[in-house]
């Protein structure tokens, strides 16, 4: 396979702290021999495990970048045993634009794996992670939030995996992150995901959904900052005590997703974190083209809590309207 065109401006084997860029050549109208410059920080001291930490896999999700720019600016090599690789804005062109996908090629990073060295900008970044960064890592944390179109109760998540030892390691890391909720997660479509790439390499992998709506809150940013430090302490990379508080373990059984069958204006009948009974109305969609039309009810097929919801007030047919999760 071809070499990846990205040049790393950091030495992954050097002790100490380095702030640099992954430089991807990108020739365009306003810069003929220009580049995409993806910020990267490497902190290393001696031998030990490697953590690979990423935010803004989707460019409109902010808790991860907040926690990771903060970590890169505050952690010192003396606190570290092993290595921390921090890429706070994984899909950097999308992050700069404040959009889920890249404005260059419309690439959705989390649907672009394993990537291609001779593909689009997004595919080239994915290929670099697939063949260069992921193989260096023992533990991988990829921050997500709902972005502009979804909102979630704040949770860390690990996937149900065929290898039960690996699944147990992922669940232990998720618990150590210690978000208010911990989700045993099922994906709508796992093909092309960074999660799947990391898990297929046998890595301990944790992801999150920490609110959304295209911004962050004081509380959700705090969950992210505390969680990443807890995870690094759990991995034996940072010294210190894990800050623990109660976490609610959640499952996503069949029937957890509700999709809109209509275009219109959504009215939620329960809020995030509220309990809901099977058969209870989650939301209704109002038709807005004329008055006098009865709204369409959307009923929960599960008894649990509202863990995720569509964020904007208008919905389109096929949008994910709600996620109901069940306490374990
Ligand atoms: Zn995301």
How would you summarize the topology of this molecule?
Layout: E1 7-8, E2 16-25, E3 35-45, E4 50-54, H1 63-74, E5 82-87, H2 92-97, H3 121-133, E6 139-142, E7 150-152, E8 155-159, H4 164-177, E9 181-185, H5 194-200, E10 204-209, H6 218-234, E11 248-251, E12 257-259, E13 264-268, E14 275-276, E15 281-286, E16 296-299, E17 304-310, E18 314-315, E19 320-327
Parallel strand pairs: 4-5, 4-6, 6-10, 8-9, 9-11
Antiparallel strand pairs: 1-2, 2-3, 3-5, 7-17, 8-10, 11-19, 12-19, 13-15, 13-18, 14-17, 15-16, 17-19
The structure holds zinc ion (ZN).
The site of zinc ion has 5 residues, from loops.
Structure description:
- This protein is α+β, with helices and mostly antiparallel strands.
- It folds into 2 domains: 244 residues, 3-Layer(aba) Sandwich (Aminopeptidase); 75 residues, RNA polymerase II/Efflux pump adaptor protein, barrel-sandwich hybrid domain (OB fold (Dihydrolipoamide Acetyltransferase, E2P)), CATH 2.40.50.
- The protein contains 6 helices and 19 strands.
- The chain has a 15-stranded mixed sheet that branches.
- α1 links the parallel β4 and β5.
- α1 crosses α6 and α4 crosses α6.
- The structure holds zinc ion.
């Amino acid at each position: 396979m071809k070499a990846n065109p990205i040049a790393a401006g950091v030495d992954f084997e050097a002790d100490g702290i380095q702030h640099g860029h992954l430089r991807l050549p990108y020739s365009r109208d306003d810069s003929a021999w220009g580049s995409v410059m993806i910020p990267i920080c490497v902190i290393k001291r001696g031998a030990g495990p490697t953590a690979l930490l990423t935010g803004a896999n989707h460019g409109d999700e902010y808790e991860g970048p907040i926690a990771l720019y903060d970590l890169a600016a505050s952690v010192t090599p003396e606190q570290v045993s092993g290595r921390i690789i921090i890429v706070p804005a994984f899909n950097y062109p999308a992050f700069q634009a404040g959009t889920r996908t890249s404005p260059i090629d419309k690439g959705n990073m989390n649907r672009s794996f394993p990537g291609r060295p001779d593909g689009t900008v997004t595919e080239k970044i994915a290929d670099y992670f697939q063949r260069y960064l992921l193989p260096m890592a023992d533990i991988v944390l990829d921050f997500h939030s709902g972005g502009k179109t979804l909102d979630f109760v704040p949770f860390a998540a690990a996937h149900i995996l065929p290898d039960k030892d690996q699944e147990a390691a992922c669940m232990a890391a998720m618990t150590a992150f210690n978000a208010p909720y911990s989700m045993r997660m099922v994906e709508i479509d796992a093909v092309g995901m960074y999660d799947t790439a990391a898990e297929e390499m046998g890595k301990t992998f944790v992801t999150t959904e920490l609110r959304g709506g295209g911004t962050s809150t004081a509380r959700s940013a705090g969950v992210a900052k505390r969680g990443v430090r807890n995870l690094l302490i759990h991995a034996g990379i940072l010294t210190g005590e894990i800050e623990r508080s109660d976490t609610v373990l959640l499952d996503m059984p069949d029937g957890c997703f509700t999709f809109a069958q209509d275009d219109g204006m959504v009215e939620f009948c329960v809020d995030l974190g509220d309990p809901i009974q099977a058969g209870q109305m989650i939301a209704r969609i109002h038709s807005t083209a004329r008055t006098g039309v009865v709204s369409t009810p959307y009923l929960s097929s599960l008894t649990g809590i509202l863990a995720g919801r569509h964020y904007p007030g208008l919905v389109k047919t096929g949008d994910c309207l709600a996620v109901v999760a069940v306490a374990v």
